[in-house]
């Protein structure tokens, strides 16, 4: 159904995009590491052990316990914390445990320098990095899906040509058997054939069983993924109306039905 086809395309597209996603993840982690390391070097003080948690400070003008440095120590105290906080900043999460804004604290403490750097960083991240990552992933996924569609198209074309060739071999062999029953073990004479001239040839059920039991016919049907070792069991498929006779057209249609 179209819905399942869309779902299949989504899953295939995701699988196709995994290599690009891996490199995007690698680049993302590298950027987070570099930025986290930079922030970690900026906030090297040890004030929390002396002044307590920055969320509990009431006097924001206390020069002995500058709250912006303390927030820096809390959220950028290690490289791992610094990387995680940088990632939160990229997603727009600036809150502390107490619900206060780290960005506001940094803005009040560091002034215009931080504000300029923060605005520039967010523009680069939102309008640059994220868009580049999205474009790379989408482009690789679409290219992969197009390539996959082309391969499926060629496969269908090859399948159609292959089945048509096998049906032609069956018609040629049936023509041989119909004209000369003793030729069951001979190879095809590759004579020219016109299907419309042969389509309405009728076979009795016993003739059909004999034809389906022919070694070459069975080999061709095996090439079409049809097991015909017991022709009698296939009569209901070929002679669906139970008249006791079938035309060559019905034989070919039944073979296509068995193939699925």
Give a verbal description of the structure.
There is one protein chain. The two termini are 17 Å apart. A two-stranded antiparallel sheet has the order 1-2. Helix 1 (2-42) packs across helix 4 and helix 1 runs antiparallel to helix 6 (112-179). The protein has eleven helices and two strands, in the order H-H-H-H-H-H-H-E-H-H-H-E-H. It has 260 residues and is mainly alpha-helical. The protein has helices at 2-42, 48-51, 67-75, 79-91, 102-110, 112-179, 195-198, 205-212, 215-223, 235-238, 248-259, and strands spanning 202-204, 245-247. It is rod-shaped and about 110 Å long.
What structural class do helix, strand and pairing data support? mainly alpha
Adjacency order of strands in the biggest sheet = 1-2
Count of individual helical segments = 11
Determine the mean pLDDT. 77
Distance between the termini: 17 Å
SSE pattern = HHHHHHHEHHHEH
Overall radius of gyration = 37 Å
What level of helicity do the residues show? 55-70%
Beta strands, count: 2
Q: Major sheet, described briefly?
A: 2 strands, antiparallel
Proportion of beta-strand residues: under 5%
Q: Provide the low-confidence segments as ranges.
A: 182-193
Shape: rod-shaped
């Amino acid at each position: 159904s179209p819905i399942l086809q869309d779902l299949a395309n989504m899953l295939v597209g995701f699988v196709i995009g995994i290599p690009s996603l891996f490199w995007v993840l690698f680049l993302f982690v590298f950027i987070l590491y570099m930025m986290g390391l930079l922030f970690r070097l900026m906030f090297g003080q040890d004030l929390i052990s002396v002044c307590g948690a920055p969320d509990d400070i009431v006097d924001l003008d206390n020069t002995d316990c500058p709250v912006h440095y303390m927030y820096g120590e809390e959220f950028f105290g290690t490289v791992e914390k610094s990387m995680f906080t940088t990632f939160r900043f990229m997603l727009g999460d600036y809150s502390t445990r107490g619900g206060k804004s780290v960005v506001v604290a940094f803005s009040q403490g560091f002034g215009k320098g931080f504000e300029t750097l923060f605005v520039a960083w967010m523009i680069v991240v939102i309008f640059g990095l994220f868009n580049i990552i999205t474009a790379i992933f989408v482009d690789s996924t679409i290219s992969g899906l197009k390539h996959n569609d082309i391969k499926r198209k060629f496969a269908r074309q090859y399948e159609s040509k292959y089945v048509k060739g096998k049906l032609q071999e069956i018609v040629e062999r049936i023509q041989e058997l119909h004209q000369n029953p003793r030729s069951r073990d001979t190879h095809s004479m590759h004579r020219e054939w016109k299907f419309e001239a042969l389509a309405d040839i009728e076979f009795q059920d016993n003739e059909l069983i004999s034809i389906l039991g022919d070694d070459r016919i069975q080999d061709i049907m095996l090439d079409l993924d049809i097991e015909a070792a017991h022709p009698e069991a296939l009569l209901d498929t070929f002679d669906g109306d139970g008249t006791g006779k079938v035309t060559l057209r019905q034989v070919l249609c039944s073979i296509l039905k068995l193939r699925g």
